Amino acid sequence: MAASQTLPLHTKMLMPWAGINQAFALVYSCTILALIYHHFIGLLHSTSIVSIFLLLADSVLAFMWMTSQAFRMYPTYRRVFVEHLEHYVKEGDYSGLDVFICTADPYKEPPMGAVNTALSVMAYDYPTEKLSVYLSDDGGSKLTLFAFMEAARFAAHWVPYCKKNKVVERCPEAHFGSLDSTSFPETDQIKMMYESMRDRVENVVKKGSINHDYITNEEESEALSRWTDAFTPRNHPAVIQAILEYGKDKDITGHGLPNLVYVSREKSIDTPHHFKAGALNALLRVSATMTNAPVILTLDSDMYSNDPQTPLRALCYLLDPSMDPKLGFVQFPQVFHGINKNDIYAGDMRNWCEVLLPGMDGLAGPFFAGSGGFFRRRVFYGCPSEAPKMNQEVSHSIKSREVLAMAHYVAGCKYENQTKWGRKMGFRYGSLVEDLYTSCQLQSEGWKSVYCNPKRPAFLGKSPINLHDCLNQTMRWSVGLLEVAFSRYSPITFGVRSIGLLSGLCYTFCAFWAIWAIPITIYAFLPQLALLNSASIFPKTSNPWFWVYVALFLGAYGQEYLEYVLSGGSALRWWNYQRAWMMKGLSSFSFGSVEFLLKSIGISSFGFNVTSKVVEEEQSKRYQQGIFEFGVASPIFLPITTAAIINLAAFLSGIAQSCRQRSIEDVFLQVFLAGFAVVNCWPVYEAMALRTDQGKLPLKITLISVILSWALYAASSMAF
Predict the structure, then answer these.
(1) Burial grade of 266 (CB within 10 A; 0-12, 13-18, 19 or more)
(2) Partners of residue 425 on adjacent β-strands
(3) CB-based contacts of 396: which residues, under 8 Å, 6+ apart?
(4) Which of 61-65, 352-356, 360-364, 389-393 has the least mean pLDDT?
(5) What is the tens place of the pLDDT at every residue in 375-429?
(6) pLDDT for residue 506 is more than 50
(7) In angstroms, rounded to a whole number, what is the distance separating the alpha carbons of residues 647 and 680?
(8) Which of 54, 232, 299, 443 is 20 to 30 A from 60, comparing alpha carbons?
């Protein structure tokens, strides 16, 4: 015990550039206010539509920039000392851990992804008797259940192989695919077993049916027989199968295997199922009847464990007696593998992992990022003073008739009727981004969180490798975030009051993320259309207000650039990051905002569309070469392609005007904006005119964009 007083489990440090951030925020805010003042003075002399649009754009930019500075006031860095944990608690006294893995569609999320994730956590450096893995199959597919039956057989070889050889990469696909992985005497044999299992699973998914030769016993046959002709993904009874049970199922060395449970909650077309939040709440209840571990880890199906000691890192916070008893969860960053060299779609989310989450860690704590969060189970049952203690783990067999009957009952689609589930208990309903919505409400109730970002990523997942999937995923997030922004628990009102000003502003920035569409769209079209009509809407270079625009542009971009590069990113990756942000602003944010408005008045209802994890070979090759993937004739590309055409025309027109009849200083800012957009749109021009591969922009989209560009120019000629 004396050692525990001198050997800390973790340390916390305010990042040294916090003071610089605070000083910069003060100076930059004064510059913003000066520009807004300039706009108001201009409106007193002329109330043109152009002036109003520019004021709107700059006001939204000011609002989003100022809320974003809340992340930069107290950025925090933490360090964990796993080696000190033994001085605080014996291994046998570790908290029980229930791992939740969520999947929804075996064709968009291939079962082998979830299998690899499950195998990676089943092999954790953690007491096996304390570990249980639950798979939520919200698509209710027998193909997924079959895949996990196969995984259970392979786990009997994989788990002891990893622990005996102290393998670090415990995801089979990553381990066997790594060029520098260490080989052991049994590696080739285990690899052959894995590839055989993978081939059987992929063959079953491809055929859509299970060969009877693959079913090895009566228990498996009985489990798979529950899929009848009336069984559909949206209308079926609950299916809960305890595939492995610790104490009864052994690995090849005679040691017990972790519990492995398949869960497909009951669904009915007449009952709302609340997407992923509903699936997680079903897992909360089912796991409570079977194992009731006091700590829960949530993972997406493709987010496999990359470090076998990750649970111990979480325990360094959760079991530290000096930590705030209100600590509710530990969040690890979402890190993605397979991203191409220059990250053309900004898939690594570096800004979120290296700026936003560390910034919130210095306040009330980061939000739950949807995956990689270690929760105390009790946080889902009320505020810190009311939530019951969750130290009583279930001791009876998870395969007993009584336990399975209760598990099926709590997984019923009507179980939540007339209860607090989704409102005051569990993951919260009301938004497609249940992660941010839930964590905002948990922190409003008084719970805290910490951010753990070790050098070796704790988890690795997949990011979309084509532009269409990337934009659609962002559009879905935009809808969900706006649902949070305009909910009863809006962070700009409820959050600021209950969590604190800075934390509330952090959540406000995230919730209103989609309104970036307003200034991005205005600045992508208005100055350029004015230029095409020989109209000047910005100050001349000789006007002092010109330098205000220059200072604001360089200040905002300079801050983002420095943060990106200092966090380990390259200059080229930063360039692609800001281009992806503008593309998403024009398309995803705009479409998401419109979808939210339509949904709010009852015209449209946005469903949860799973982002496809299926990778086509030719598409993957183009992605690795850094070539943008358009390929499909989707309307979500239209704002981008239309803006590309108008900016190119405006840039050429501005240069021509400057050469013929007027000084460049009159329209310098407009020409600069158009030129800046043209450089950013180079991949679009390539896809329109220079490429012949399958990933080029469909001719239909190009023609519609030309027509829209002409229509916008014709309409603008009446306004200037």
Answers:
(1) buried
(2) 421
(3) 402, 403
(4) 389-393
(5) 999 999 988 877 777 666 667 899 999 999 999 999 999 999 999 999 999 999 9
(6) yes
(7) 10
(8) 443
Task: Give the neighbor-by-neighbor strand order of the sheet with 131-137.
Answer: 239-244, 259-264, 131-137, 97-103, 295-300, 373-376, 327-331, 448-451
CA distances from 291 to 258, 646, 670 (A): 11, 60, 63
7 close to 87: Cβ distance less than 8 angstroms: yes
For residue 1, pLDDT beyond 50: no
Check whether 613 has a pLDDT greater than 60: no
Name the pairing type of β-strands 327-331 and 259-264.
Answer: unpaired
User: How far apart (Å, rounded) are the C-alpha atoms in residues 647 and 524?
Assistant: 7
Q: What predicted TM-score, i.e. pTM, was given to this entire model?
A: 0.93
User: Annotated catalytic sites, by residue?
Assistant: 138, 435
> How far apart are the C-alpha atoms of 140 and 674, rounded to whole Å?
50
What is the total residue count of the chain?
720
Q: Where are the alpha helices (DSSP H) in 337-466?
A: 350-351, 357-361, 401-410, 434-444
The Cβ of residue 625 has, within 10 Å, a number of other Cβ atoms equal to 10
Stated as kind and residue range, the H or E segment containing 23 is: helix 18-45
CA 287/CA 298 separation, integer angstroms: 13
Question: How many Cα atoms occupy the beta-carbon half-sphere of 214 within 13 Å?
Answer: 21
Segment 255-263 mean pLDDT: 97
Give the DSSP letter string of 168-198: S--SHHHHHH-TTPPP-TTHHHHHHHHHHHH
